[in-house]
């Protein structure tokens, strides 16, 4: 459905470096990472907001290459931005009439029905006067009103109330349920992605570059690490090379142990458990900051 191969993009003093991912139809990809690691930059490259030059890599949706056939490529995209990209002085329906014409399959009738479903005033209300949550609902209604193959969302749920957040995730599952569409979603709410995404792209910042720390399934990532919590006397045998991160206290340590090339001794198994995605991120990002300082 979608492939990104060897993406390199320099923007001012920052650059994305060698990002490669592949997404099959029916899959949801969650993008995680600390602020400034390049998540939004990557999404804007995927959406075609930044022009790719020779040597910047390849982006393709189905058979459409973004350099060779940008119009067809972009017609396959649906999106939600953190900041709404529409004209703030227009009503939601006026936005649909103005911007919907850029998509071959856009339906004003479907757009109006979705606005009603999401309880957003369609007429006689300027977009700028809507709440942040309502503005996100306008974007969701718009992007679901044409037949996209790939839906790209940048922090879409941050301003949504809990009930509508559940409806949003239910909608995303329905989108990929027919295995004809795929979703890419960047979010700082890691706990939600853990039960929602099929694959994870974990970005990190290395100096002025945004790079890939991990790309794969959540199970592949979680299977690699164990949290071990015990007294200091029980943990001294774990070599430093296997410690991906740690939290210290006076009487005990909590370690994140990388088991890819190290097997926990039998006596430590009772003190170990699988780590969740939030813990893995916390320990590894904290350790990275410590090493940089």
Q: H/E element string?
A: EEEHEEHEHHHEHEHEEHEHEEEH
Work out the count of structural domains: 2
Model regions low in confidence, pLDDT < 50 over at least 5 residues: none
Share of residues in helices: 25-40%
Secondary-structure-based class equals alpha/beta
Sheet of most strands = 10 strands, mixed
Strands, count: 14
Which topology of the largest domain does CATH recognise?
Rossmann fold
Please state the average pLDDT score: 88
CATH superfamily of the largest domain: P-loop containing nucleotide triphosphate hydrolases
Strand arrangement, largest sheet?
5-4-1-2-10-9-3-8-7-6
Q: Give the terminus-to-terminus CA distance.
A: 41 Å
User: Which of globular, elongated, flat, extended, rod-shaped describes the shape?
Assistant: elongated
CATH class category name of the largest domain: Alpha Beta
Report the total helices.
Answer: 10
Query: Roughly what fraction of the amino acids lie in strands?
Result: 25-35%
Instruction: Label the CATH architecture of the largest domain.
Output: 3-Layer(aba) Sandwich
Rg computed from alpha carbons, rounded to a whole number of angstroms: 22 Å
Keywords:
single chain; 293 residues; alpha/beta; Rossmann fold; 2 domains; 10-stranded mixed beta sheet; 14 strands; 29% strand; elongated
């Amino acid at each position: 459905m979608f492939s990104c191969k060897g993406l390199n993009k320099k923007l001012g003093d920052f650059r994305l470096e060698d990002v490669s991912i592949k997404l099959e139809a029916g899959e949801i990809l969650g993008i995680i990472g600390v602020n400034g690691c390049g998540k939004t930059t990557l999404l804007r490259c995927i959406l075609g907001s930044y022009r790719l030059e020779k040597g910047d890599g390849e982006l393709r949706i189905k058979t459409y290459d973004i350099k060779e056939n940008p119009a067809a490529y972009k017609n396959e995209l649906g999106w939600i931005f953190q900041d709404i990209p529409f004209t703030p002085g227009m009503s939601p329906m006026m936005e649909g009439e103005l911007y919907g014409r850029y998509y071959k399959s856009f339906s004003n009738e479907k757009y109006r029905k979705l606005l009603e479903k999401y309880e957003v005033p369609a007429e006689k209300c300027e977009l700028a006067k809507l709440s942040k949550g309502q503005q996100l609902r306008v974007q969701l209604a718009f992007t679901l009103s044409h037949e996209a193959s790939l839906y790209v969302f940048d922090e879409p749920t941050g301003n949504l109330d809990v009930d509508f957040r559940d409806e949003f995730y239910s909608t995303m599952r329905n989108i990929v349920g027919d295995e004809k569409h795929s979703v890419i979603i960047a979010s700082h709410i890691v706990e939600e992605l853990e039960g929602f995404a099929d694959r994870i792209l974990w970005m990190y910042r290395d100096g002025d570059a945004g790079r890939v720390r991990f790309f794969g399934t959540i199970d592949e990532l979680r299977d690699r690490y164990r949290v071990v919590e015990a007294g200091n006397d029980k943990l001294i045998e774990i070599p430093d090379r296997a410690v991906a991160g740690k939290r210290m206290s006076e009487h005990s340590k909590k370690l994140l142990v990388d088991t890819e090339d190290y097997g926990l001794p039998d006596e430590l198994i009772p003190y170990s458990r699988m780590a969740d995605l939030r813990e893995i991120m916390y320990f590894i990002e904290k350790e990275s900051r410590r090493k940089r300082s």
